[in-house]
Amino acid sequence: MSNTREKTINYFNDLDTFARKELKYHGIKRNCPICGIDNQDIALPKAKYVFVKCKKCGLTYIKNILPDTDTFYENNKKYEEGWRNTNIQKTKELDPQEKRILKSVKNRGNLLDIWCGFGRTLYHFKDYFGSVEGIELNEYISKIGRDLFGVKITKDIEVLEDSSYDCIILHQVIEHLASFDLFKKVHKLLNKDGKVFIGCPFMDSLSMRILKQKHIHVQSIAHINMFNFKSFKAFAKKYGFKIESIKTDNNIDVRLSDFLCIKKGNFFHRHNRIRFNRFSSAIFLLTNFFLEKTNLLSKMKLGSYLEVVLVKE
Ligand SMILES: [Zn+2]
């Protein structure tokens, strides 16, 4: 078992044990965080956590959540451990999504990255925007980010001045939130012609259709909201935004080894035991090459992550 695989699996198991115990005694039930109603069907009936689908807006969400979801990311040691195991690379190279963001923002004044983690995106965008800053709840993470990347990372979003950002990024954030009230503030912070970029796991992706409850996206208490196109529209409308564009990335997110292991009891998406031989590696590389060249998954709206650009209504 490789060291990284072992660490990741142990990490998820620990978090899971903690969450299940907490939920049993202190879990709180919530209504649909978009519509506020209690009218849903069970989604993913075999999943570890009870995911339901709102009958009105189509959001798939965990019904019973941790009582301290809001402070969980700030001071939960189990959660923090995942970040301690992260290997941070200091490279200037923009990832494909960052390139897409850059391409669509014409007015590159002030940029805000909410829940910026170590602040790598801020570091990448430093030379492209007038100013960049981030919000991160966890002090351990933000300190490393400030020291390593030399970027401004603070904690309290409420003290930031309204109408002062041209670009606000929430990358892999929205799926973690107990309530979306944060977006009232995001709306205020945004300039009249500013843009909000949101990236999150996509409920209707090809990989979710194949793996269902076995997908890593729905394997922990961390991802409590899973969006599709319909629920995103309802969400944007509620918080006074208009969708400028909504698409999926081009990521298949299912390895060939996943296919081979899917039925096994110890299957763990992205971290299973089967090693690639040359033949299967070649097939995998060819498939990826084909998908990249054709942009097929994105065209078919089946990629693993949603990428949404919002503007003020
Ligand atoms: Zn709803």
Record the SSE blueprint:
Blueprint (H helix, E strand, L loop, with lengths): L2 H24 L1 E2 L10 E3 L8 E4 L5 E3 L1 E2 L3 H7 L1 H8 L11 H9 L5 E5 L5 H6 L5 E5 L3 H11 L2 E3 L10 E7 L10 H8 E12 L4 H6 L13 E2 L2 H10 L2 E8 L7 H6 L16 H17 L1 H4 L5 E8 L1
Parallel strand pairs: 6-7, 6-9, 7-8, 9-10
Antiparallel strand pairs: 1-5, 2-3, 3-4, 4-11, 10-13, 12-13
The structure holds zinc ion.
Zinc ion binds next to loops.
Describe this structure in a few short sentences:
The chain is 37% helix and 20% strand. The protein is an alpha/beta fold and 313 residues long.
Structure description:
The protein has about 325 residues and is α/β, with parallel strands linked by helices. It has a single domain (about 5-310), classed as Vaccinia Virus protein VP39 (Rossmann fold), CATH 3.40.50. The chain contains 12 helices and 13 strands. A 7-stranded mixed beta sheet has the order 8-7-6-9-10-13-12. Helix 7 links the parallel strand 9 (about 165-170) and strand 10 (about 190-200). Helix 1 (about 5-25) runs antiparallel to helix 3 (about 75-85). It is globular, with a radius of gyration of 19 Å. About 35% of the residues are buried. The model has no long low-confidence stretch (mean pLDDT about 90). Zinc ion (ZN) binds near residues 34, 35, 54 and 59.
Provide tags for this entry:
313 residues, alpha/beta, Rossmann fold, seven-stranded mixed beta sheet, four-stranded antiparallel beta sheet, 20% strand, globular, binds zinc ion
